[in-house]
Amino acid sequence: MKLLKYIIIFLIINFGALAIGSWLMANGPQSSWYINLNQAPWTPPGWVFGVAWTTIMICFSIYMAYLYKKLTNATVIILFSIQFVLNVIWNYLFFNLHLVGIGLTTIVLLTAVVAIFTVRYYKQLKIKTLLILPYFIWLCIATSLNAYILLKN
Asked: Does the CA dihedral 122-124-127-128 come out positive or negative?
């Protein structure tokens, strides 16, 4: 029962992050600024982002619940908090302020934090580490999209 409670808590926090991020980017993906950028040929259609982030946050919430249940320590909480802030702030930096370079730095740092989770806690979570891989893979794709925009615009 404790695990389910943690899953629900992390679902609320993670989907809260998505909601805040969406609010901060406002109409960014439909803005003339974004639409007129030279975008990577591998940029997925808009609907993929919603499906991807929903799947990622469900998996990540379950991953975090298992991790938090096993290791309730400051390092886990600090890493999670850093991940939360970086995830949310990227939307504002990229879509609202059009700070593509700072956005790239932010998403690289976010990818590094998720990589730290993946590697650092593998021994504790073993096969459950697969739950964080969609997040890491998507961040690698998103980083490449951000980098392409920086280089080609």
From this structure: negative
pTM of the model: 0.94
Question: Domain ranges in the chain?
Answer: 2-20+44-152
Contact at 8 Å (CB) between 28 and 94? yes
pLDDT digits (tens, 9 = 90+) for 61-105: 999 999 999 998 899 999 999 999 999 999 999 999 999 999 999
